[in-house]
Design a protein that fits this description.
The chain is an alpha/beta fold. Helices cover 22% and strands 29% of the residues. It is elongated. Bound molecules: copper (II) ion. Residues 485-504 have a biased composition (Basic and acidic residues).
Length: 504
């Protein structure tokens, strides 16, 4: 960055002012927030740091450090440790993440524009890889990467002045860069404007990322990174905060009605851009790309890979609001789904009521898929019982089959056949595996009623999930009983689909 002489002189003037006064400098920039001009970064230099150095408060997602109520530039010390560790990526699925601060995304950092940040990057002694950090809020080569290459058990230090305000991504930039990012090495740093941000009731930290595992979506066990899928940009998971369910069930974000919510939404990538949307809300204000200009009344905002946005809205009526990447298969089939639960009195003049229900959310509305994990672990240990399969199948049925066949298995007259006491099912239970994996079309008769409709293949389900669901179905609602195995389902999947009418 080249600086005109006049700016250097201006900076010197501020310096002189600071030197002969023990009060914080009356910086013109503190009164007038930097406008969107080409010299905004130079206006962010409010002179040397003042007062005692401050240790930055870092937070884990979805939490955000408290606002900074300071009217002078300070020296802020940030200590961040890289930790490589195995954590769940989905129910019963784990992954070896590389993290900044032990979480994905990494710890949230908050400083004030003009602060001098003394950055300490540590790499845990039990790490296998060297790492570094590129902060998009840094003016300087590599955004800090050039000065922060850190071997396991070592620490690096560099210092930068936060010249530009905004919400910035940071990430690891050690080769192969894509792999380090894909393993979760990213987070956000907020550089507050000198006058601070407008107060709100809640601030939350949400960051999207795409993940590449050798196994399929929800395939159980420890899943290794798949470089080929990553190069092809075919993610197995697209997630908010590094884990399917990081923001659902007991982990949902919360607010009350008639409050203001600010989301700092980042996208670590490494590959996808995010069409960030909250089902049932309209963003009153968005600062796209983390920039200074605000956009209002926005439905969906595009967040580039390696970018971030600030999103604000007011809560009017209670219910579950669903955070999604509106590239919607990512939300329902790759995990990019979170919930903001808003409690408070109804306002029927704005909305008549009723929650976003399980039809919209599928099994994600089910806060607890524990039984699914228990069954997967038991299968791995070779001790899977029928009871464990039934318990797991019941939870999966709720999100998958109940939409059409209903939670009680009764179906819907003339549209969806019953699974409860179904003579069609009882006549050939094995055929059900083929129906679920391949779908079913054409005329069938169930309990004396004709159906001529289409069931799409439930190809999002794994073999063990199908086995558990059908074991639940065949042992429920006066059906004849029995058991299905993962291996049987694999065989049925490999064969040709079912025939509604026996062939003659
Ligand atoms: Cu790294």
């Amino acid at each position: 960055m080249s600086r005109p002489l006049s700016t250097v002189l201006a900076a010197l003037a501020v310096f002189a002012l600071a030197a002969c006064s023990d009060k914080p400098p009356a910086s013109p920039a503190a009164a007038t927030p930097p406008a969107s001009t080409s010299v905004a970064s130079q206006r962010g230099d409010f002179g040397p740091p003042q007062g005692e150095p401050i240790h930055a408060v870092l937070t884990s997602p979805p939490h955000v450090p408290p606002p900074i109520h300071r009217n002078y530039p300070a020296k802020v010390i940030v200590e961040l440790e890289v930790v490589e560790k195995e954590m769940p990526i989905s129910e019963g699925v784990s992954y070896t993440f590389w993290t900044f601060g032990g979480t994905v995304p990494g710890s949230f950092i908050r400083v004030r524009q003009g602060d001098t940040v003394e950055f300490h990057l540590k790499n845990a002694p039990d790490s296998k890889m060297p790492h570094n950090i590129d902060l998009h809020g840094v003016t300087g080569p590599g955004g800090g990467a050039a000065s922060s290459f850190t071997a396991p058990g070592h620490e690096s230090q560099f210092t930068f002045k936060a010249l530009n305000q905004g919400i910035f991504v940071y990430h690891c930039a050690t080769a192969p860069v894509g792999m380090h990012i894909a393993n979760g090495m990213y987070g956000l740093i907020l550089v507050e404007p000198p006058e601070g941000l407008a107060p709100v009731d809640h601030e939350y930290y949400v960051m999207q990322g795409d993940f590449y595992t050798t196994g399929k979506y929800r395939q159980k066990g420890l899943q290794p990174f798949d470089m080929e899928k990553a190069i092809d940009e075919h993610p197995t998971y697209v997630l908010f905060n590094g884990r399917e369910g990081a923001l659902t069930g007991d982990n949902a974000l919360t607010a009350k009605t008639n409050e203001t919510v600010r989301l700092f939404v980042g996208n670590g990538g490494p590959n996808l851009v995010s069409s960030f949307h909250v089902i049932g809300e309209i963003f009153d204000k968005v600062q796209p790309e983390g920039g200074t200009i605000a956009q209002h009344n926005v439905q969906t905002t595009l967040i580039p890979s390696g970018g971030a946005a600030t999103v604000e809205f007011h809560t009017d009526v209670p219910g579950s609001y669903v955070l999604v990447d509106h590239s919607i298969f990512r939300a329902f089939n790759k995990g990019a789904l979170g919930i903001l639960k808003v409690d408070g009195p109804e306002d029927k003049s704005i909305y008549s009521g009723k929650e976003v229900d399980s039809v919209y959310l599928g099994d994600r509305s089910e806060p607890n898929l524990k039984a699914v994990t228990v069954a997967a672990q038991a299968h791995a240990a070779g001790t899977l019982t029928k009871e464990e399969q039934i318990a797991a199948g019941k939870q999966l049925f709720t999100g998958t089959c109940s939409v059409c066949h209903q939670a009680n298995g009764e179906g819907l007259a003339n549209v969806f056949p019953p699974l409860a006491k179904s003579d069609f099912l009882a006549a050939d239970p094995k055929r059900a595996m083929s129906i679920v994996t391949h779908g079913l079309t054409g005329k069938i008769t169930v309990n004396g009623h004709e159906y001529d409709s289409v069931m799409p293949p439930m190809s999002q389900l794994n073999d063990d999930e199908v086995a558990n669901i059908l074991t639940y179905v065949i042992n429920s609602w006066d059906n004849p009983g029995g058991q299905f195995s993962k291996e049987d389902v694999a065989k049925a999947r490999a064969e040709a689909g079912p025939h509604a009418e026996p062939e003659h």
